[in-house]
Amino acid sequence: MRRPEVRPAGPAVSQAVELRRRYVEELRREGVTHREDVLRAFDAVPREEFVRDGFTTGDGRLVAPTDADFLDLVYRDAPLVTKLVDGVPVSSSSQPSLMAAMIEALDLRPGSRVLEIGVGTGYNAALMSAVGARVTSVDIQPDVVDRAVAALARIGLAGAVDVRLGDGYLGVPDAGPYDRVVVTVGLTGVSPHWLAQLVPDGCVLAPVAHAGSHPVLRVWRSRTGAVEGRAVLRAGFMSAAGPLAARHPWSHVAPRGGPLAPTTLRHPPVWRPPLDVFGYHDLWFAVGAWDRRAGFGAGPAGGWGGPGGCVLLDGAGTSWAGILADGSVQAAGPSAGGYAADALALRDRWVDEGRPRIDEWCVPLVATVDPETPILVPSGWQRRR
Q1: What does the pLDDT average to over 33-37?
Q2: Helix or strand or coil: residue 120?
Q3: Alpha carbon distances (Å) from 3 to 44, 85, 87, 146, 155
Q4: Could you give the residue numbers annotated as active site?
Q5: What is the mean pLDDT of the chain?
Q6: How confident is the model at residue 8 (pLDDT cuts 50, 70, 90)?
Q7: Which residues cross the membrane (predicted)?
Q8: Measured distance CA(216)–CA(182) in Å, rounded
C-alpha cells in the first residue's frame, strides 16, 4: 500500500490538517466506525484534493477553492456535488460518515481486493487504499475518471488505485476475483456480473432502492447458489442510469416529483419526543418491507414540518398518507380515509413487533426477466430471528 504523500507546510496546508483532525474527531464521536485504521485513513487523505474543480453545496451554492470557506465546507460531514447535468447531480463526494460506515461494513484487511462501482471523485477509493485494500474502480463517465486519476496522482497514489473507464454493470473481470464489491450509486438491483467476479466467500455492498431511499445491503451467494441480502444501514444516493435502475415487479411505487397535495385528514401524534432520525428510518424501512406503496413524499402545501418523509402513495398520485416522526398521520385525496387507516396499522405493527431496526431485515434476491441485462432484486423481506 502506498500512503498519500505529505505536502510541505504552509498556511493553507496547516489549516487543512487542523480541520481534518477535527473532522476525524467528529466521525469518532458519531460512532460511525470503530476501526482506528479507517479513522487514520480519513486523517491521512486530503479531501480537498478531490474537489479542486469546486463543488455545489446542498443549498445550491457553487464553491471554488478560492473561496474563503472552501476548506471549512470540505471538512464538514456533508456530500459535495461535483457534477450536474441539466441541474441534476450525477457525481459527488459522498457524506463522509456514510463512507466511513460503508468502509467498516466491508471489513477490509491489508491486501483485500475491492471492485468499486462508481469512481465519484476518487476520494473513497483513496480511503480504501489507505486502509490497505487493492482497489479497482470503474465509471462510465470519461471526465469523472480523468478527474479522479488526476486527484489520486496529486496525493501520490498514481497507479495504486486502478481506475477504469467502462460500464459498471459488467464489472472488471480481468482484475478479479475480488473479496468485495462496493457500489457508490443508488440501484434497483445488483448485477450478476459482480457476484461472478467475487471469491467464494466474498460479498457485494450496494445501496438498493427501497421505499424511496437507498439503504445499503450486503449481498452474497450462499452455498446452495441462492443470492441473499441483508440490510446494513440507512443511506441516500444519487440513482444510477441504465439497467441498474430498471423497475421490476417488486419495485415500490414510482417516485413522484413535486409536493404532495395539501393535507385534508390528520391523526394526532403518539410519540413525545418524536423518533430520532435513526428510529424514523427504522420505521420507514419496515413500512416499505410490508407495503410496496411506501415511498418518499415531499412536504405538502398544507404543512409537513420538514422536507418530507415516509408515505403511502397510490399509482395515480391522487391519494396519499404519511407517517411523521411523532407518529401522527396525515392524508389527502379521494381515498384519504383508507390510506390513513393503512398507515396507522403499519405504524402500530412496527411498535407491536418490537420496533425492528433496519439491520434486522433480510431478503432473497431474484433475477429479473430481462435476458440482455438482468439484475438481481429484493423479493420478500423478512425479519431475522
Answers
A1: 93
A2: coil
A3: 8, 34, 36, 21, 9
A4: 94
A5: 91
A6: very low
A7: none
A8: 10
